[in-house]
Amino acid sequence: MATADNSRWISAFLDACAADQGAAENTRLAYGRDLIDFADWLAVQGSDLARADRAAVESYLVHCDAQGLARATRARRLSSIRQLYRFAVQEGWRPDNPALRLTGPGRAKSLPGTLSEDEVARLLAAARKRGRRPQDRLRDTALFELLYATGLRVSELVGLPIAAVRGDPRMILVRGKGGKERMVPLSAPARQALADWLAQRDAMEDADRAAGRPASRHLFPGDGQDGHLTRQYFHHLVKDVAVLAGLSPARVTPHVLRHAFATHLLAHGADLRVIQTLLGHADVATTEIYTHVLDDHLQDLVLTHHPLARKDKPHEPGPLSDA
């Protein structure tokens, strides 16, 4: 197990992440898991965070590789270690950062899964009829229309405050990763779905008040600890709607709908920088992966529709020209 000094270093680093960087709870938990695993490994080697050198960090990465951990996981662990030691140098606990010049395994670029426009339309139609009660159907419709219209992260969607959508706005303010705020526009179908859900939700809340139950500040109230629908609940909801729409639930997740939002915008001519802003990406390089998805789409169009690519009708050259 990690020594007391190791625990103190990790705890202080995580507190600083929350205070100085506004890191989300899930990010801090991931940092904590990575650093505790590294500290425990060092303890087995008879070392600790204060004494570990570059060779120790390299050996730990080899150990992670031998365990069969994915490249992305190993890259994240190296990033966590590097950031911890950067903090330790700033605090004067160490004179150097032993992980500074290590490049690590890198991240394998994987193309995000997406859905066609027809498949998204089927999902939206299925969301309108899934629930048993009218209020469930109105809520589910609002969730799906809002997600596809904005490309929100699932945590941003389920945690939206009701104040963000009062007054039939054409744009809503979203608080994303690290507390960063951005404005995202709403489509006409999303605005209508929100208006229908708000009318139902307000009527339900009036009944709750009459019964002495407190009002919720969230657009999508739930029984979770934070008072809104949980990400896990919405994930299962998406799977149910996918089945109802006749799609494989393995292909459909909230994140895939976020990818569909970006890919369809790009296919219809939206600028990559605009999509970056709407998605809340800090770096346009993160957004550029969607160009690869579009490249595949364009290649498929050529292979499907170009006369030279049609196998059922061989190309017959015309008469040669004198020119």
How would you describe this structure to a colleague?
There is one protein chain. Helices cover 57% and strands 3% of the residues. It has a two-stranded antiparallel sheet. The model is unreliable at 313-323 (pLDDT under 50). The radius of gyration is 25 Å and the shape is globular. The chain is mainly α and 323 residues long. The protein has two domains: 4-91, Tyrosine recombinase, N-terminal domain (DNA polymerase, domain 1); 117-303, hpI Integrase, Chain A (Orthogonal Bundle), CATH 1.10.443. The chain has 13 helices and two strands, in the order H-H-H-H-H-H-H-E-E-H-H-H-H-H-H. Helix 1 (4-21) runs antiparallel to helix 2 and helix 3 runs antiparallel to helix 4.
In the residues, how many domains can be counted?
2
At the fourth CATH level, what is the homologous superfamily of the largest domain? Intergrase catalytic core
Record field, number of beta strands: 2
Strand content: under 5%
CATH topology-level name of the largest domain: hpI Integrase, Chain A
Distance between the termini: 82 Å
Structural class: mainly alpha
| Largest beta sheet: strand ordering | 1-2
